[in-house]
Specification:
alpha/beta, 58% helix, elongated
């Protein structure tokens, strides 16, 4: 394996740069991504004086707990008890509520009467809560809203595990495919043809194909779907336009993508997969955060020397404790070497991507003090 050293990721320079307005944290599940996002937001507010909001799309509630908040919802909530006296910064946090966001979009882009008609539609009720892809698209909507308001110096986004985060990037294209689909265009036809019912459309236009669709879907579902499409018809162009705008924001230099990974093969593989996607989409990949790294710095005593010394001391009753300590040291050294070897796989594939690491902590982070410690280690 070639000896490739990645450039150092300067977190403080990134957080202090006023040109950086969005930081998106991506990675596999269970690698400390939510904690990293929260620590970045806290450090941006406390050290660099930025008015910061952390948006989590991950349904887990670890972010609220670590910031001392009883709950998170679709409205930014200010985190109290942080040290911003000298910096003048602020920290807020929120968790995406996809149904509430969808409702907000409807309310903002149609009349009150039409909004109530949409809200009452059974298909809308199901789609806004459970439809595959709605969460990712609404995440794009919420990010676009936060950025368009120009209220925040920095928005830190904590995404779901990376394959789901790829759905986050895919949301505009998938929405366009949905809106341009043949079936949807046919369902729009009654509204565009003067309000004929879906059943006249079935008789007059769909023929045998439409009768089959009605038989498979059921008459009521087809009616609900047609009504939903007719009600939203005037809004579809706005959906696509805003999603495309947000996608362009993600490609802009004002956005910084940070990959978060643990020194494990699956996590590094996910990080590499995501890095390839970001490069292909021309999105700004700013660095890799290697979380929970192990090392043993004792003046160059390697694992083999520690194990040999432990064997010699183990034979003497008075030095068994010392022998056990040497074995623990040898185990830590070997673990650190394995982790460095795994991480090197990413560096070899992406040698220009800056990297920083965080040492493994003795306990999980569950409060602001813990987040402050992680932020200092990042920097």
């Amino acid at each position: 394996m070639a000896d490739v050293t990645a450039p150092r990721l300067d977190i403080d320079a990134l957080l202090a740069d006023p040109a950086i307005r969005i930081v998106v944290c991506c990675g596999a599940g269970g690698v400390g991504k939510t904690t990293t996002a929260a620590a970045l937001g806290l450090r941006a507010a406390e050290v660099h004086g930025r008015r910061t909001v952390v948006l989590t799309i991950d349904p887990a509630r670890r972010l609220a707990q670590s910031m001392g908040l009883t709950e998170l919802d679709n409205t930014p909530r200010q985190v109290k008890g942080i040290d911003v006296e000298g910096s003048g910064g602020e920290l807020h946090a929120m968790m995406l509520d996809m149904k509430r966001t969808f409702d907000e979009v409807v309310e903002q882009h149609t009349t009150p009467a039409r909004a109530q008609e949409i809200f009452a539609n059974p298909f809308y009720q199901a789609m806004s809560s459970t439809f595959a892809g709605t969460q990712e698209y609404m995440a794009m909507e919420k990010l676009g809203q936060l950025r368009a308001g120009d209220e925040w110096d920095l928005i830190v986004v904590d995404t779901p595990p990376s394959r789901s985060a790829l759905d986050f990037l895919d949301a505009p294209a998938r929405l366009s495919r949905f809106l341009d689909g043949r079936m949807l265009r046919m369902l729009m036809a009654p509204a565009r043809a003067g309000g004929r019912s879906v059943f006249s459309l079935v008789t007059a236009s769909f023929g045998l194909f439409a009768k089959t669709v009605q038989k498979v879907l059921g008459a009521q579902l087809l009616t609900d779907l047609s009504g939903f499409v007719a009600a939203l018809d005037s809004m579809f162009g706005g959906f696509r336009q805003r999603a495309d705008q947000t996608y362009r924001i993600l490609q802009d230099p004002q956005t910084a993508f940070l990959l978060v990974a643990a020194p494990e093969r699956d996590a590094i593989r996910e990080a590499a997969y995501f890095a390839e996607r970001l490069v292909s989409e021309r999105m700004p990949l700013s660095g890799l955060v290697l979380n929970r790294m192990h090392s043993a710095d004792t003046g160059g005593l390697d694992a083999a020397e520690s194990e040999a010394a432990a064997e010699r001391l183990a034979a003497e009753d008075d030095h068994r404790v010392a022998a056990d300590v040497l074995r623990i040291h040898a185990s830590l050294v070997r673990q650190g070497e394995r982790e460095a070897g795994v991480a090197a796989g990413f560096t070899e594939a992406f040698p220009a991507v800056p990297t920083t690491s965080i040492a493994a902590q003795p306990a999980d982070v569950h409060d602001v003090d813990g987040l402050r410690t992680i932020g200092a280690l990042l920097a």
